[in-house]
Amino acid sequence: MTNALKATSIGWLVISVGHVVRPLQLPSLFLITHVHGKNPDKNKNLRCIQLGAKEWQSSPQFRALPVTADTCARVGWYQGSAFFLVNALINYNWSLAPEQLRNPINKAAALVMALSMLGSSAGYFRGGVSRNGLVVAVVGVLQAWAALRVN
With 134 labelled, which of 1, 13, 26, 31 sits at a CA distance of 20 to 30 A? Predict the structure, then answer.
C-alpha cells in the first residue's frame, strides 16, 4: 500500500513538472494504437497533440488574448502546477502513514484528486489532447486505487 501511495506521489510530481516545462514524450505509435484504436499503417501521419506551458502559451491564438484573459490563463495554469505538487507531497505523507486515509476527510480528498484527474482526462481526450489525457488518466486511476486500498 505504501508503495502505491509513493508511486502516486511520483505521478503527481511528474505531472507538476511536465505541466510547467516540456511535457513527457510518449511514443506516438503506442497512443495511435492503444488510445485511438487506429491502424498505425493506415494513419502514419496521425500525431497526438501534447501540451505543456511553453507549447500553448506561445501559440498565436493565446498570444492574441486580451490582457485579462492572458493573465488569468497563465496564472491558473501555474496554480495547477502548484496544486499537483501539493498532491505529490500529500500522497508522500500518506505513504509514510497510510492510516491517515482511514480518516474520511483524507479519503474524500484523495477521491477528489482522482476525480479531478479523470474529469480532466476526459476533457483532454474530447479536445484531442490525447497524450495529456492519457497521463492524467493514469494518475487519476492510480490515485483512486491507492487511496481505496486503505481500509
Answer: 1
Q: In a structure prediction context, what are the per-residue pLDDT tens digits for the chain, which is 151 residues long?
A: 689 999 999 999 988 888 777 554 444 333 333 444 444 444 444 344 455 667 767 778 878 888 898 888 888 888 988 999 999 999 999 999 999 999 999 999 999 999 999 999 999 999 988 888 998 999 999 999 999 988 7
Total domains in the chain come to 1
The pTM score is 0.74
The size of the chain, in residues, is 151
Gap between the Cα atoms of 48 and 131, Å rounded: 6
